[in-house]
Structures are given as C-alpha cells and as structure tokens.
Amino acid sequence: MSDVISFEIVGETAVITFNNPPVNALGHKVRSGIVEALETANNTSTVKAIILIGGGRTFPAGADITEFGGPLLEPGLPAVVNIIENQKLPVIAAIHGTALGGGLEIALGAHFRIALNTAKIGLPEVHLGLLPGAGGTQRFPRIAGAKASIELMTSGTPINVDMANKLGVIDRITHDDLLASALIFSQEIIEQKIQIVKTSERTDGLIDEKSNKEAIVNARAALKSKALGLHAPFRIVDCIEMSLTCPLTEGLQYEREAFIDCLNTPQREGLVHAFFAERKSSKVPESGRAEPRKLSSLGVIGGGTMGSGITIAALKSGMHVTMVEQDEESIARGIVNVEKVLNRDMSKGRLNADGKLEIMSRYTPTTNYEEIADVDMVIEAVFEEMEIKKAVFRKLDQTVKQGAVLASNTSYLDIDEIASATTRPRDVIGLHFFSPANIMKLLEIVIPSNPHDDVVATGFLLAKKMRKIPVRAGNCHGFIGNRILSIYGELAAYLVEDGATPQQVDQAVRNFGYPMGPYQMFDMAGLDIGWANRKAGESTRDPKRRYVGIADRICENGWFGQKTGKGFYEYPDGIRFGIENPDLQKIIDQERAKKGITPKDFTEDEIMRRYMAAMINEAAEVVNEGIALRPSDVDVTLLYGYGFPRYRGGPLKYADMYGLQKLVKDIKEFENEDPIFWKLSPLLEKLAKENKTFDSLN
Predict the structure, then answer these.
(1) CB of 601 within 8 A of CB of 499?
(2) 347 contacts: CB under 8 Å, gap ≥ 6
(3) 77, 34 contact by CB (below 8 A)
(4) Strand ranges, E, within 351-437
(5) Does the pLDDT at position 69 exceed 70?
(6) What predicted TM-score, i.e. pTM, was given to this entire model?
C-alpha cells in the first residue's frame, strides 16, 4: 500500500486512511493509493463496506495545486471520484477538520457521509481562479439545488456541518470519536442492507425547477457587479446550470472543459501566485534563528482611530490590552471607539453580550504609563510626527520592563531614529498597521538596522495572533507599500496635469480591477495627510524633479476630501462615492497655465501603461535595495494593503505576465518625456536582459 494511504480491516469494514500531512492534499500518490486500496477492499471477501477517513487533523482539504499547469498524471481526480461512486460496496466518507475542494468532491463520490460536529465543507476553487473540476458542480446541485450551490462555489466560503446536514449533503453528525461512529454507521448499513444511492442519481435539488432557474438568472445579474472582471464565477454558474438538466456524463464533460478554460487563464496564474505568496511572507530569517518572546499582554499608546483598531485586534486575539491616553477626555473617546466596534459586532450577530463582557474584562484604559510597566509589548500609535514619537519612546524606555518589545505604528518614519530615543534600540521594531486596523489584514513589520532576532520573531507572532498577513519590510521612507504608493501617486498627478481628468484616471484604474482609483482613495484617506507629508519633505525635495501643485491648491481651499465634503470630488449629503467637483477644473487649468502645459488626450491603455510602469519600476527598486525580502512580498503588500486586483497576482507577478522586455521598452519611451522621474531599475533591466522573471527570485 502507498505510504500516503493506509488500509485496515475492522470487522466487515475496510478503513482507507489519507496520510499526506499537513492537509492530506490529493496529489498523484494519494490518488493512486486510493484506487489501489479500493481494489484491495473489493478483492477481500470479508469486506462489506468501505470508510474513507483523514489521518491527522483533517479530511483531504483540496487538490495538490502544485500540479496545476503541469502534465496530467493519471489517475486524475475526476476519475478517482467516479471510481469511488461506482463501487458496488457502500462507501462512507468520514469527515473531520475540513473537506474542501477535491476533498469534498471525494466525499460527494461516496454514497454516505458522516461528519464530526466541528467539521466544515466547501468548494473554494474560485479563490484560485478555478471551479470544482472533479464533479463538484454536477453532484452538489443534485443534492442541494442551484441557489445553495452557487453561494458555496462563487463565494468559496466553507459552511459548517449543521448547514450541510440541512442541505442534505451530510447524512449524520457525530460529537464522539469519528472512526468509531463511522464504523457503527457502516455496520448499520451492512446489517440493514441500506440501499446505495449514487450522488449523481439523486434528484433532491432538482425538483424545484422554478427556484433553480431564478437562482441562475439572479446569480448572473449579481456577478456583473460583484465579480470585478473575474472569469471563474461565471463559468461556475454555467456548470451548475448544466447540472440541472443534463445527464451526469454530459455535465462532467462540460465541467472538465470549463475547468481547463479557467486553468489556462492568466487569472488562475495570478491567483495561485497570490495564494503561495501569502503563505511565504511569514517565512523570514529571524524566525528561523530565534524563538519569539512571551506575548500575552499588550500596551497601546493612543486611543484614536489606529490605537483603537489595534486594541480591538489584540483583544479579539485573546490578549490583555492596556490603552494609555494623555487625559481623561481622550481615554473616554478611546473607550467609545472600542465599544462602538464591539457593539457593531453584537448587532450583526458576531458577538453576544457574554462575549463582549469577556473581551472588555481584558481591556484597561488609563492615563498612567506605570500601568504598562509589565506588559510584553507596547505599540505606540500617536500622531505621525517624529519628535512626538521620540518623546513617547523616551517615556517607554523609562517605564516598561526590560525584555518588552517596543513598537511604533508608523506609515513613513525612520524606525532607527525612533529607536535612538531609547537605551535599548535592539528591542524596537516598526509595526505598520493599515486602517481600520481591526479589519485590514496586512501588517508591515519594519526592521531597523540591528534588532534582536527574537524581537522580529515576536512581531511575526503578534501578526499570527491577530490573524494578519505579515510582510517583512526594511527601514526606508514609506517602507514597501507607501514608498511605492508615493511614486504611482506622483505619476497620477502628472497624468492630470498633462491632460487627463481625475475621473479618467480613476476609471482606468477601476477597469484594471482596483476597487477604487487613486483620487477616490486620496479623498477617502484625507488630502490633509498627504499635504502635511509634502510640506514636511519640502526642504529635501529635488528641485529638478517635477512637482505638481494641484493637490496643494485644493488643500489651501480647505478641501480635504470626504471629511470636508469636497476634494477631488464633491460629497453632497455625505455620499460615499463622490461626484465631479465643479470648481476643480479651474485649479487644474491655472496650474497647467503656470507651466505652459498644453493638455493632451490619454487613452485608458496609455494611462495604465504609465501607471503600472511607475509602480513596477519602484517595486523592482524596493526588491533591489533589500527593502523587501522577495518580489512576492511586494505583491502581498499591494494585494492586501492597497487594493491591487488579486487575480493579477500583484504588481511584480503582473510584470512577469506582461513581459519584462516590453516593460523596459515602455519605461525607456517614457524616459524621453521625463528622464528624472523615469529612471529604469537596474534589477528590472538585468532580469529583462537575462530573460528571467521576478518569480525566479522568490
């Protein structure tokens, strides 16, 4: 028997166990082992039933995605599922942990399904730009109908076994030992001679034809606004529609063709890259060299928007949090900020009263620094001004116990300079949370010049506790994300000054796949923040570098975006998405006239060529300088912090797919317009010359 499949006979039942840790992925060896084990069961005269069960912590949690894009190794998963379904002996899938993707399709091939009460099932292939390709789109609707099938497959969100039981997908739920319960179930089937019904022959979900047709129509309409240019969700609906009227063989053929169609799209490549990049981002050298320090209590300096968000994220992770503010009025605001989020969770059913009480019992607001003397980590989240932050760190140095990690939540500032305010600079790191900190998943962990390895490891432990996606960032102005943002934000300003409108730029960026354009984002963040940064950097600005003053003129009018009801857009009656600001064009015209600029027309393609070239070129320099460990970390940063469309993989994956030689040609063309701004990254130039990709550096 295969080393990833074990076979045992218990009474009259053959127990086939998946042993391919960590998630029992259905790679070629597992698939071959299943077929071999089934043959053994059939050739053993005493065996009257078969149980499929996962070893370790889960039932198979999906296919082996490392095989995607390579040659098909037989037996393929669709064939294995068909073999399971066509067994003469009753086959029982015993599910614990998660049965996801190919794992659930294996279970659907079985004739009966029993699950531990804590288990979850799902078909999340859409997150990889794919659809269930081993019969999931054909078998699941035959049990549960079109509406539930569409929701499960187009969202990719797993459901619990109680819901699966209501849908008819799970036959029995157990709270006891899963194998023991499955063996009892097996014996019942044997003794009572319960008839085998193949999933492909079930019609439970097909009876209500009217409801199924409505679900298909409604899904297609909804996806037009929700799917953001994605391909797979629409093909999923197509396949489910086929399941409602076609024989299984025809439906499976259609599903296979649709799966291959999705497999061969750039979206699949981008989404799979994003999947692996996310998992790689937490693998850093410091964590390999040292264990993290103890981390059960946290001090947070500041109860504003960021401080409260960090506090909530820490409280929800199970930590004790002491929030320090400068006076009672500020503390009162901080308490309100924290409770507002928890009350919202209660109103949405995500938290009950007892849960809120338990969370609040671990929350201590205070104006006294002495109350954080014994915490394991302190995160400063005060105003983004160097001298204010250094004053806080001098106080922390005097107050907080030795061995505690001291962290600054900063978007741009020099972590080494902040650390210099203490007598223990090697205990200091940067933690750049993204707003709102209790929701946004990205956390840039900023590494100063010489931190202790265990301090860095503790930063990554915090990210894990808070369920954040961590990215290691070197210490420079803006780190990874904001450094790159400043460059493509600068490029967006050039586009407008040269002839495009903010609306045109935003529309082009949204059509590329972003949820919003840069000018919408600037208005939402507050134009006064960028204005303050520009004024602070005025003394060090290269006088030869082109400077666009349009945003400054807007701010001089007191228009700071959504918060003031006016910025690049107008926001009458507090609307979320602005309308054209009728007073903006006058400012733009005046700034063009000062420089003698005759506006020119830009196509959407021309806008995006410049926009992406600027972003990618700066991203390449971030990698070249070692600010990012690897290109995929840049991709993760832009995906999770800045709305880069996930199906494009991130800016450097997009660059690989666009073609580095083509990109270099674009930048050299733009260099003729502005040789100071357009300076080709040596790394990008080198990779293009050597016919390599950014992916080769991951």
Answers:
(1) yes
(2) none
(3) no
(4) 363-366, 377-380, 405-408, 428-433
(5) no
(6) 0.91
Q: CB of 372 within 8 A of CB of 322?
A: yes
Is 471 within 8 Å of 480 (Cβ atoms)? yes
Q: From residue 211, give the alpha-carbon distance in Å to each of 163, 250, 362.
A: 19, 23, 48
How many residues does this entry show for the chain? 698
453: which 2 tokens?
């390895």
Instruction: Return the structure tokens found at 568.
Output: 């690049």
Q: Which residues are catalytic?
A: 105, 125
| Angstrom distance (rounded) from CA 466 to CA 684 | 35
Tokens of 8: 């045992």
Rounded distance between C-alpha atoms, residue 140 and residue 148, angstroms: 9
Distances (CA, A) of 5 to 22, 143, 352: 14, 29, 43
Report d(CA 590, CA 612) in Å as an integer: 28
Distance in angstroms between the alpha carbons of the first and the last residue of the chain: 36
Lookup: tokens for 389: 């932050």
Please write the tens of the pLDDT for every residue from 219-258: 999 998 888 789 999 999 999 999 999 999 999 999 999 9
Q: What is the rounded distance in angstroms from the CA atom of residue 199 to the CA atom of residue 248? A: 10
Residue 1 pLDDT exceeds 70:
no
What are the chain's domains? 5-259 (3.90.226.10), 285-477 (3.40.50.720), 482-626+629-697 (1.10.1040.50)
- Integer Cα distance of 613 and 410 in angstroms: 27
Q: Which of 615, 526, 612, 509 is nearest to 568 (CA)?
A: 526
